[in-house]
Amino acid sequence: MTELLEQIFFALMLSSTYALISVGFTLFFGAINIVHFSHGDVAMLGAFCGIILYGILGLAGLGSMPLWMVALIIIVVSSLAIGFVGTFFERMVIKPFRRSPLLMVLVATIALGIVIRETVRLFYPQGSNPQVFPRILPQTAFRLGSLQLRVDHLIILLISVLLIVVMFLFINRTRAGLAIRAISQDMEAANLMGINSDIMIATTFLIGSILAGLAGVLIGSYQTVVRFDIGLMGGIKGFSAAVVGGLGSFYGAIAGSLVLGFVESLVSAYVPGGAPYKDVFAFVIVIFFLVFKPSGILGKAAPVKI
Amino acid sequence: MKGVRGFAIGLFLVVWTLLFCLSPVAFSAEKNLVKLGFIGPLTGPNAAVGLGARNSADLAVRQANERTDLPYRFELVVLDDASDPTTGVAAATKLCSDPLVAAATTHFNSPVGLATIHVFHRYGVPQMFWGGIHPDITNKHNYLEVTRICPNTLVEHDNLVNFVVQKLGYKDWSIIYDMTSYGKSCLDAVKRSLNKVGAKIHSEDGIAVGATDFRPILSKIKALKPGPQVIYYGGVVTEAALIKIQMTELGMKHLYTGVTGMDSETFNATAKEAAEGTLIIGKAHIDETSPFVKAYKAAGYKEYYEATGPYAYDAVNLIIEAIKKVGPEDKKKLAKAIREMEYHGILGVTKFDEFGQTLSGGLNVKVSQDKKWVLWEGSDYQKGKRPIPGK
């Protein structure tokens, strides 16, 4: 029983790392109808930003600061920095294609992803090697009945859930969120109603990229090592999770992430010889959904698909 | 007449220039230049090891050039294999195409070596492995050109199993391995060694290189009843460190072991406190006060020489001694001379068997203590000051 609970816990942790990325995909698709393929790579930038910041804090006298303060600074500064970087990318790469077919944006963001990855690989010192993410969260363990849990894992899980909830509330319960949803339904009508679509789109990207930056820091903390190419697989998995759950639906993004996370974890543990092929199993599920229920678990059937 | 004279002068100048361009060796001042190749992972996840080995090979070449008894000037040609077979084959081809390259010392990763031995054999260039422990590198084709100055995986695992099973008394093992040919050769070797001593294997799990989450597998091993005392990992540093970190997260107190793939300070730097108590068969131990270490430090290399540096150092020196004997021009003669060498270096005595495999290789049992690899002999664990992990 303990083992099963433990497996479920780790499956949940894995699902939350995917959810952090898939919610971003859902945000961009649901709000402005674009598939932002470099979202995973922007999250990777968040992880690298965290590593760089830790190094800077170290040079500036880290020893005197308590760990929670270090963690807070890294989380906040990384998220904000990547938020602005993401918005910059939007202005440079995505805005020019606003009136073009959706395929153009897709290809542009794929290219952007390549540029981000290769820039890190070439210019970050020893960029092609795995980098150790600093331990900014408390490493203490405690027992809950027969289960052994760790404080840092719980913090990561908690922040992930909080983030997704905040995102959901922002889109559905605030005026800004309402404006974003209006733009996604009909940009011209929204403009006529006095909504500045340019600013709202930039806001969406700011929020989505802050989420990506934060996701990078959390995923870095959980996985301990980060590489320049984690954004590629992470982005594919996050996107697949969003698609499985229903692109455009928040609950769908979470459902999809749970499906992917659980399939991978349980295959690793219980299918004999399955661990190296866990990705195969996960993507077979994705294909299954695309063939039999393309709108996803919770999505509505859409008339147009790329 | 003027036209003919002009033409003659022009023709003479052209021929004169071509003669210079086409015979660099004949006309250059460095007529006894001998190039030695070095290929290793200078980038990628094993870069620390590759750079340390490169520096050690470079030190050997520098020292050789200061010697007065050699009629040659040596130059080290350094190429990167990035731990990738395709890149390695391209580097090997480039190296072998240069007629001035007499011999090369290569590779940390067995999969790369298994691909490049055919290139070196085709060109007839002697190739000495300073790393890479897959038996097939030497034993499968037994190419004359190929030798290995480090021990192979069968020897390493026999040593490991003899120590852990017979000396420490741990008979119950779980195996995790990576899916490269190195990891699979470790799996085969450890199973062979464990079956020889009658130990019990509770589980076998393969993982993909580049994966970062091993918690499901470890959780499954943790729940096995009666469980293993030892968790063995067959693979290289990054995944090895992550597994140990996650074992610690799960509160697993098994003894964690492996062989030389884990013998790198990157393991301790990545796993930090979690590395404590990991026990491996490590490569040769070189004393801090030895001339090699002193010279290495004096040369001011940025990177640590790592466990494989001394092997690259002795490899280059052995090749140079062979060149001193038979000269660099006839590569087949050189390959034979290398095979027949009995060389005394910092690793001790190096002699090759009928497959070109060294019979010694300076193996040691090492344990991770305070985030550093130390010899088992003299460690707190051996003295009983710290408890040995495993039940």
Please outline the helices and strands.
The complex is a heterodimer of chains A (306) and B (391).
Chain A: H1 2-32, H2 39-59, H3 67-94, H4 102-123, E1 131-132, E2 141-144, E3 147-150, H5 151-173, H6 175-185, H7 187-192, H8 197-223, E4 225-226, H9 230-245, H10 250-270, H11 278-292
Antiparallel strand pairs in A: 1-4, 2-3
Chain B: H1 2-22, H2 24-27, E1 33-40, H3 47-66, E2 73-80, H4 85-96, E3 101-106, H5 110-123, E4 127-129, H6 136-139, E5 146-148, H7 153-167, E6 172-178, H8 181-197, E7 200-207, H9 215-223, E8 230-234, H10 237-249, E9 255-258, H11 265-271, E10 279-282, H12 291-299, H13 309-326, H14 331-340, E11 342-345, E12 348-351, E13 364-369, E14 372-375, H15 380-383
Parallel strand pairs in B: 1-2, 1-3, 3-4, 4-5, 6-7, 6-8, 8-9, 9-10
Antiparallel strand pairs in B: 10-13, 11-12, 13-14
Helix pairs in contact in B: 3-13, 4-5, 7-8, 10-11, 13-14
Q: Top keywords for this entry?
A:
heterodimer, A: 306 residues, mainly alpha, two-stranded antiparallel ribbon, 11 helices, 72% helix, B: 391 residues, alpha/beta, Rossmann fold, 2 domains, five-stranded parallel beta sheet
